[in-house]
Amino acid sequence: MRGGLEATGERLVEEHYHSSIEDYVVYLMHVATYRFAEPFARGRRVLDYGCGSGYGSRRIAEVASAVHAVDVDEAAVDHARRHFVRANLTYSRVEKGAPLPFPDGAFDTVLSFQVLEHVPADVAHLAEARRVIRPGGCLVLATPDREGRLLPLQKPWNRWHVREYSERTLRRALAGHFDDVEVLRMSGRRDVVDVELRRCRRLKWLTLPVTLPFVPDPLRVWLLGALRALQAARGRPTVRREFDFDESVIQIGPALQPSLNLVATARVPEARLSRARGGEESAL
Q: Do 273 and 183 form a contact (C-beta atoms < 8 A)?
């Protein structure tokens, strides 16, 4: 085992996700997202905005020119610094809700994977991502697809999630900051996808009294935490299992069904200065 960092549901720790097929499929979904991002990071300056335990940042650093990975959790950043090291990869802790400590246009690509659903101020999070992307750069973002996880109006059964997005609501949130937005879906080999769909279906119904829309969020979070504590008291498998498939069974593309995650790309226009000059010329 690499270290004592706990897999809380808010972050992924690689070694904790090989003891059951359900955990392994969740792990593959994360790995597939970073695999999808590699072409957007190749040879570029990358910010991993919410890097968690650092396994994905290390993977992206293999193709990027430089990666700066940030997270609000000091324990996660410490774990990443100890276990996922590369010469072109640096980690730092950032303050929750505070502006990023980087100048405008500092990065070619910003990655934000399984983060937006945790952030109370999602508008500010996206605005900061937009600010640090240079003209011509892009954001690659992944978040759970609520349509396969929740009933209409149901609040998230993951206690760390403030909200979850449909394709429509995610596209609308991104369009407030970016001009060119594409929202794709994550699916894959049906027997593998069904593992995650069954897990979500079970949790959707198991937590339904707690996640009704009229339940105040502080109470929802407390009750979901108590439920998780009861489950943890029963223990969980600790023996590492081997499976005969990898992230190649996960696909990301337009209109894939059934959908597990939404994966969006949002681009910043090139040459804003030249466009402004064009406007001045046309006004003369």
A: no
| Residue 219 belongs to a domain | yes
Q: How many CA atoms lie within 13 A of 276 on its CB side?
A: 5
- Within-domain flag for 149: yes
Q: What's the total number of domains in the chain?
A: 1
Angle at 20 between CA 249 and CA 51, to 5 degrees: 70
Report yes or no: 110 and 266 within 8 Å, Cβ to Cβ: no
| DSSP helix/strand/coil, 72 | coil
- Evaluate whether residue 20 is within a structural domain: yes
Q: What pLDDT score does 179 carry? A: 86
The pLDDT tens digits for 33-77 are 999 999 999 999 999 999 999 999 999 999 999 999 999 999 999
- Residue 266 neighbours by CB under 8 Å, 6+ apart: 138, 139, 141, 174, 177, 178, 180, 181, 182
Q: Which residues contact 213 (CB under 8 A, 6 or more apart)?
A: 153, 154, 155
Q: Tell the burial category of 115 from Cβ atoms under 10 Å away from its Cβ (0-12, 13-18, 19+).
A: buried
Q: Which domain holds residue 170?
A: 14-269
Phi first, then psi: give them for residue 47, nearest 5 degrees: -110, 125
Please report, for the domain that includes residue 82, its CATH number.
3.40.50.150
Which residues of the chain register pLDDT less than 70? 1-17, 235-238, 271-284
Looking at residue 18, its pLDDT comes to: 72
HSE-CB at 233 with a 13 A cutoff on CA atoms is 6
2 falls within a domain: no
Contact residues for 112 (Cβ-Cβ < 8 A; gap 6+): 49, 50, 125, 129, 139, 140, 141, 142
